[in-house]
Structure prediction request, 304 residues.
Amino acid sequence: MRRWSDFPSDNADRSVRTWLVQTLQAHRQGALGEVRECKAIADRLMAALDDRSRTLLEALDRRYDESELNRLGQALDRVLDGEPVQYAVGWTEFRGLRIACGPEALIPRPETEEVVSWFLEGMERAASAMGWRQGIRVLDVGTGSGCMALAIKAAKPAWEVWGLDQSAAALERARQNGHDLGLEVQWVEADALSPGWGGGAEVFHGVVSNPPYIPASEAASMDAHVRQYEPGMALFVPDDAPLCFYEALLAGARSRLHRGGCMVAECHAEFTQKVADCWQLEAVETEVLCDLQGAERAVRLIRH
Prediction:
């Protein structure tokens, strides 16, 4: 653990932040040691002490005491050991919500925020076309930390939102996040690959999912902190069945997606068109969606 003497003598926000960036650069290799990456990690570490804006902190001449810097040092040591910063500080932000993070669920990522936006946009189109005004029910398949389900509930408080996952530990994390945020979501333990997503009888107006989609053979090329710390069951699929979860989503949608309903799933960039082709049935409309960087990120289905 870092000692009090390791930190700059000037304990002002700007000085501590600069020292953090320099320390990260000195200990991290390659792309992980780039200035932009180190600044982003430093900002996350500092936000765990005080998440107000840097401009305000500097205007207030915010200074950190010994106990705060010791906490910062503990989190920094975990990051330097390779642990994701979101696990080291215990949370990340997702569409304005503070989502607690742990190794039982994937870390919510900015690109998945776009998936939520595409889903809400698709649901607005579906609701307008079908004349839905109330009683709208949506399902997040493979909810993990609950970030998507909770973001949808925050955006649409009148909707009935469900989150499904086969991991009891992930569901407990999602349930606690919902409690902490004061957002009511129905959490269900079931296997997304089982027929009808576990055999429930509910019919949903919308379905959203960020399923496992990385072929197992790609694991070796991924960042070590992802392989070592994030749950493999939420990341990887067999090389010979890369679309298994999308096939299961389609099978479940046949019986549990309302006519006129919307389904959106995040995808591997190399498989989006295959997912769209897999989802091509009679009386459906599918489209491939690109993220802000222009990468194919998701597929959206509207059931007619």
